[in-house]
Amino acid sequence: MGTTLTRAHRLLCAAVAGSLMFLAAGCSNDTRKEPPDVYVTGDKLCGGRAVTKDAAKALQVITGDTRFAASGKHSTVADAAEELTEKATYRNYELGDICRIYPDVSTNELRIRWELMSSAPKGPSSQRFTTLPMGEDAGVTHDMAYVTFACGHKDQPDSSPDYISAWAEATVRTRPEGDERPLKNAYATLAHSFALALAKELNCDDNGGLKPEPALIPAT
What we know:
Blueprint: H1 14-17, E1 39-40, H2 53-63, E2 68-69, H3 77-88, E3 94-101, E4 110-117, E5 130-131, E6 137-140, E7 144-151, E8 162-170, H4 181-201
Antiparallel strand pairs: 1-2, 3-4, 4-8, 5-6, 6-7, 7-8
Helix pairs in contact: 2-4, 3-4
């Protein structure tokens, strides 16, 4: 990325996505106006392969549903990696969407997005987050989580890595009653699943330092 990532293709919508990240789902097909014709299980969302079995279970914990509206054609980790590659050329702070997740019954819709930074993170920006020992930095609350990893490449050892975060967050945030740990674990598992999928898609050295399984015990 920047000097570390090379890919053959570019997203057609990359030029306009930056200014729309917080207003819509970029150029994805995820914005629902009518009930979807196709529902899928969690592991088929966002292009498939992005949601592990554990992350699919986490989605059920978060939403209470096991069926979700099929993701838009370009709402995939592969498309996000394309856009990340394009954005990384400028080595600025950038944001983008991976996909939106719409449960069948629940109104707890989820936004999965990426964040690109040219320097190492300095830790959570808010005391709301519980820090987790994953990648370069990771944090979780009862309604969102992020996992940050460093993306470099063995064939370009002299280039500095880029730092990428995968976020999983509720679009409507409400504080649950009772124990928040199941929700925190679920959000952290989901964010880790997308972070690892992005690291693999971008061919980051050592998968960005991410382990195959999420670390859910808070860092001390």
